[in-house]
Amino acid sequence: MSNSQALYMRIRMRVEPLVSVTNRKQLTNWVWIIVGIILSESIALSKIATAIPKEVAAESRVMTIRRWLKNSKIDVWTFYEPILKAALQGWKAVNAEVILDGVSVFGDRMQIFRLSLRHGNRAIPLGWTVIAGKGLTQVEKLESMLSRVAKFLKPRVKRVIFSADRGFRDCDWAEQCLKLGWHYDIRVACNTYVTLLNGTNCRIDELKFKAGSCRYFQQVQLTQDKKLLTHLSLTWSKGDAKNKPELVAVISDRKACRSRLIEYGERMDIEQSFRDDKSAGFEMAHTRIQHVDRLERLLLALAIATLWCHELGEFVLDSDDSLRRQIDPGHTRQLSLFQLGLRWLKRCLFTQLQPIPAFLLCIRPFKLAPLCNSG
């Protein structure tokens, strides 16, 4: 049995009982796309096609993938929800940290917005949507995805803490979180106007204080229109030889304090998950797909590959450290959870010194310290 066929069987055996399809070819081709993404470490269709063991021309194999991506009967959430439900059993006592982030692809012609769940020092996808065009996006365009994920998480986690950066600074994002029953930590632009309890009205960057220190303001009203009542925590970034220290302003529905700044700071390492999907992993930025719905289906296959890499990363860390040292040359961990899992799977495939691991769909809630090299 070839490596690609062995991977296919591992994935199919686990997902087939969970996903309901009207045509078995929908499942077959989906699994082969997942296999192709893992083996090629890319979502480029021509590279994925090399893993499909059909004795036909490459063009024919690429067309098989294209037909699956064009199939309007394949609903992304219908496929993904039962997979996610199986993977996240045992999270009921967890304060789930969810991160909203976006990345531009295909020459900034489209933006992928993804809501992810913190796992280790990275994050796994909960939901995603693709929007044509570039620039700031209004909450209404992502409301359907946010509501769907909120409904899914409600019975499965203790509470949700939402985090987003300055690209989602509008008050509407905070109000949407409250509507969903979520806490929020959102970085806002420092030229945003605030009104303090004592009546002071000014821009955030006019609240002077020394670099390296922090300040906390309770019950401030955000924007000149006093649209949102919130709490404001301020600090400075460390800066380096190339960048001066920068003022960091974080709003939250919870009391302004050092904990809010620590929570927001942790998302900076988690943001490297997009790097895992791009240059350090599956080359997401290299996609040439120009149709929103087709790219969303391709991201469905990418999500399953990501789940397996996280699961295998857990396995590596739970094992004797000598196993980690087979794929990670540092005396201490230098690779992210995702990279540990991906490299362990590839080592099993290439050397055949270990059997190809099973796909269990079991993701355990835990945290890891940030990596100095963000590997």
Walkthrough of the structure:
Helix 1 (3-15) packs across helix 2. Strand 1 and strand 2 form a beta hairpin. Strands 3-2-1-4-5-10-9-8-6-7 form a 10-stranded mixed β-sheet, with helices on both faces. The relative contact order is 0.14. It is built from 12 helices and 10 strands. By secondary structure, the protein is an alpha+beta fold. 39% of the residues lie in helices and 19% in strands.
Short summary:
With 375 residues, the protein is α+β, with helices and mostly antiparallel strands. The protein has helices at residues 3-15, 24-40, 45-49, 58-70, 76-87, 143-153, 171-180, 258-270, 272-277, 292-318, 321-325, 337-351, and strands at residues 95-105, 110-119, 122-132, 159-164, 183-188, 193-195, 201-203, 215-222, 228-236, 247-252. It contains 12 helices and 10 strands.
Going by helix content, strand content and strand pairing, the class is alpha+beta
Strand content: 15-25%
| Major sheet strand order | 3-2-1-4-5-10-9-8-6-7
Q: Total number of helical segments? A: 12
Rg over alpha carbons: 22 Å
**Helical residue percent?**
25-40%
| Number of beta-strand segments | 10
Order of helices and strands: HHHHHEEEHEHEEEEEEHHHHH
Shape: globular
> What's the main sheet like?
10 strands, mixed
Instruction: Determine the mean pLDDT.
Output: 90
Poorly predicted regions: none
- Separation of the first and last Cα atoms: 33 Å
